[in-house]
Give the backbone structure.
Amino acid sequence: MSHFGRTGPPDITDTYSLLVLNVTFRTTADDLFPYFDKYGKVVDIFIPRNRRTGDSRGFAFVRYKYADEAQKAVDRLDGKVIDGREIAVQFAKYGPNAEKIHKGRIIELSSRSRSRSPRRRYRDDYRDRDYRDRDYRRGRGRSLDRYDRDKYGRERDYRRRSRSRSVSPDYHRARGRGRYYDEHRSRSPSMDSASPIRRSPNLHRSPSPQRSPSPRGRSPDRHSREGRSPTPLSISSRGRSADSRSQSP
DNA sequence: GTTGAGCGTT
């Protein structure tokens, strides 16, 4: 009953979906239920949440059983202040599965209906329009949000991995690394590529001069001196200090 | 602890 959004869509074929915007991030379906239930029969309320954090995204979907009630709710609750914030209620435009929605009502394709007219072109046109609208609003007003970024990033990762996947894609995962590390690793390869070239000679040359050169010219001398008193100053200082201190009262 | 245009889950 009050567990809205807990289960999948019950019966969205005969329901009218309403989109509620500007709801607070802490407002739950239970909080919205009384407001909407007052104006009609609410079939279901769903609040999209972030899959990662689980936080509310700031809007909700309210499904009504009848259009007139939904319309009334829109007219009545649109602009209503809930939880200290003015919400915006309007008919849902897009469906979760590219379903056709008319006035908030989900219109499903009938078997006999599609058997008849060239619905192919009609559908394409509709879809194109919807997607264009979305893209237009998306790329114009604001930039990528955290949620969108995550979504896009994930898709990009998938595609990238598909291409990059040549040897063992699970290798990184097996190590316990998540996909978020991929972004960090993005700049790692760059350094790794240049690293070996610069570090290789260094590493090779480093041990070489120390070991290769025969301890014949100055090595023995220095070695001897350093071996006996690697830190003459330190010792001197210390010795003096200690001496001083020792002699001091 | 934060945010604020938007369109959704099994």
In short: The two ends of chain A are 88 Å apart (CA to CA). The longest helix of chain A spans residues 180-205.
